[in-house]
Amino acid sequence: MDTKTILNEASARMQKAIDHLEEELINVRAGKASPTVLNGVMVDYFGSQVPVSGAASVTVPDAKTILIQPWDKKMLRVIEKAILDSNIGLTPSNNGEQIRLTIPPLTEDRRKELVKQVRGEAETARISLRNARRDAVEAFKKAQKEGMPEDESKDGETQTQKLLEKFTKLLDGVLERKEKEIMTV
């Protein structure tokens, strides 16, 4: 393997770790209404399990409210029950036409808990970044045994470390933004 291939693979793995972190952080509720809160909620829609967005229109009219308008009125009770059973911490209110979810304001303790959760997710991503670096360094050492010049191998290891530093800064930025979003009252 050549230097460019090893570095490209390491970079791709590091980018995947950052993308995964961002995906996980979207699901952390920061006191603002977001349709992603309902991502894990499945309803029985004519015999098949579908997400709420597959059986209704989900909108966010303001920062504290999620509005669910089922396409079939018979689905109101089914969706309402699915939300209650899902344990997302929201109580639906049904007016016969649509379901309204009101996002309660976060307490200080809950905010701190969410920050801890977010930092845990970030630590998992950091471990993935370090694993990508370790694998790239091992690939350079293996390539050196197979004939790659020593200076090229060492240069590759240095570039891998620089990649890690670059992606760690990206990760820190993502984490900082999410913490700020959670702690903003």
Task: Looking at this protein, list some descriptive labels.
four-stranded antiparallel beta sheet, 185 residues, alpha+beta, two-stranded antiparallel sheet, 4 helices, single chain
Query: What is the percentage of strand-forming residues?
Result: 15-25%
Write down the secondary-structure element order: HEEEEHEEHH
Cα separation of the termini: 51 Å
Total DSSP helices: 4
- The main sheet orders its strands as 3-4-6-5
Q: Would you count the extended β strands for me?
A: 6
Q: Any idea what the radius of gyration is?
A: 23 Å
Whole-number mean pLDDT = 88
Q: Which class of secondary structure composition applies to the elements?
A: alpha+beta
**Low-confidence spans: pLDDT under 50, at least 5 residues?**
none
> Helicity level, as a percent range?
55-70%
Largest β-sheet summary: 4 strands, antiparallel
